[in-house]
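ok so i was messing around last nite and threw this chain in just to see what happens. nothing serious, just curious
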Amino acid sequence: MVAPLRGRLVAWGGTLLFSVPIAMGIGHVPEKVLERRDEAHAVRVSSAIVKQPRADHTFSVVSEEVKERFFTIDSRELGHPSPEAIKEAFFRKEIPYGSIIYREAKRQGLQPELVAAVVEAESNFRPMLISEKNAAGLMQLVPTTGELMGASDLMNPADNIRAGTRYLRYLNKRYQGNQQMMLAAYNAGEGNVARYGGIPPFPETINYVRKVASSKAALQRRINLRIATAQQPYDHAVD
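result:
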């Protein structure tokens, strides 16, 4: 019984003597082997450093794919205003009652340029204007139409534009997006459009439709110019 136990103790002791130094980080690895390993690692590191491009040539070695991914950044991430934000600012700063026009046009699914062109053609942005036919305010609504469209005070710019854009939306839907028919009905009345099967042959109405279309196009050109000008610094910086 004694001999087998002694053999087992010797075996355990050998295991303990070998494993404890390894676990403690000592081990029996020759120092020369460690030195050669460190030298080889140092050579690999130095070679990698030598192969790196100089700092002043960094961008010359960047691939075209990396350049495209790096420089193609959403303008909103850089604080660059979107075209719609530029357009809204244009109306707020450069068009009389532009903030109201922009807001109400968007609510009714209309182009702000179109609504502004109608206001210009109807009253030239004069909120207190009353016509011989008793049409009132910025969008020259008769009291009956204003009341149907929810206006309580046609001399109030916000009320007038709100009611006018609602009426334009109604006409736009009735004539299935046909802008000329919509404008003709706004000027001459739906009855006359129905009677003549299109734009009535009234010089005033024909000129009105042309004038609104021309003013709308001019506003769009001005807005596009603002957008292009605002984007130039960003485009130049990327080039």
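not much to say yet. Residues 68 and 97 are 42 Å apart (CA to CA).
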